[in-house]
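USER:
Before I trust my own judgement here, I would like a peer's view. Write it directly below this note and I will take it from there.

ASSISTANT:
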Amino acid sequence: MLELINISLKWDSPKEKPFIKNLNLKIKNGNILCLFGKSGVGKSSLINVIAGITEDNLLFEGKIILSGKILNNISTEKRKVGLLLQDGALFPHLTVEQNIYFGMNRKLKTKEKLVLINENLKKANMENFNNRYP
């Protein structure tokens, strides 16, 4: 279950008021939720916060709980939350190799993943990009 407790989001400015205030939500396993609303109301910001992708000027309060585990202080790549955006996106704090590794099947061993990453980067003529950041 995904649970949001007293979630508030606002831009880091004294003049700004929260654009999401004290949101409480429970989504049981297997259920689907659709967020919709006008542009700028905070849909993407909320989803990004759940996934652990935050902007420097976004202030966040509340608790995000997934399967009984509080995610607030867990890094993006360790949250086990998938996010598919309309536009292509990479984690800016991870290297090319780490971004690819993040999306790979958990059942594969580390060595197998690294071999696959290197093989596919070579196929794309990007074998020297492993340690670069997006």
Remarks:
- The chain is about 20% helix and 20% strand.
- Residues 5 and 63 are 5 Å apart (CA to CA).
- The chain has a mean pLDDT of 90.
